[in-house]
Hints:
Elements: H1 11-19, H2 25-37, H3 43-57, H4 65-76, H5 80-86, H6 95-110, H7 123-128, H8 132-191
Helix pairs in contact: 3-4, 3-5, 3-8, 4-5, 6-8
Protein name: DUF2062 domain-containing protein
Keywords: Membrane, Transmembrane, Transmembrane helix
Domain DUF2062: 27-174
Amino acid sequence: MLFRRRKPLGFWGKTRIALWPSRSFSRSARYFIKRVLRLTATPHAIAAGVAAGVFTSCTPLLGFHFVISFALAYVIGGNLVAAALGTAYGNPIFFPFIWAITYKTGNFILGEEGVREGHQLNLHALLRHLDMSQIWDPVLKPMLIGAIPLGLASALFFYVLTYWSVKTFQERRRERLANRAKTRLTNLSGKYPA
Length: 194
C-alpha cells in the first residue's frame, strides 16, 4: 500500500481519529468537498446524488440512510457515490438538532404541538420492549412528517450549491487542460518544424 502508516493504529487510535481528526476538521471538510467535486459525472448527477443523501439524512431511519439515498438517487438520476457522500450531512454532531427540528415541525404539521407540550416522553420506557407500535405515534410519525419540509429545503440548498460548484470546477479544469494541451502542441511544433 502506498500511503500506509509504518506503525498501524490500534483500536483506540482509530476511535480517537474518528471522533477528533489529527489534522483538523477543516482539513477533513476540504478533503470531503474535493472528493465530491472530482467525481466523474455531470453536475446534475452529482448535485442530485448529494441532494438525495442530504434529504435522507433528515429522516430518523438511521440504519437505512444509504439504502434510501441510493434508491432516491437512482430514481432522480443522481450519482450513487455522491448520494453516499451526501448522507454525511447527518452525523452525530448534527443529529440531535435535526431530530429536534423534525420532531417539532412534525408535531406542528400534525396539529399536536399544544397537546404534547406538557407531556414528556420516556424514550427508555418506549424502547425497552422495542415495540414499534408504541414508538410510532409519539415519536417516529412526527419525525418522519417533519423530515419532509426540512429535507426538501436542505436538499434544494445543497443541490444548487453542489451544481454550481461542480459546474464551475469542471469548466475551470477543462480550460486548464486545454491550455496545457496548447502549450504542449506549441512546444512540440517548435522542436519539430515541418
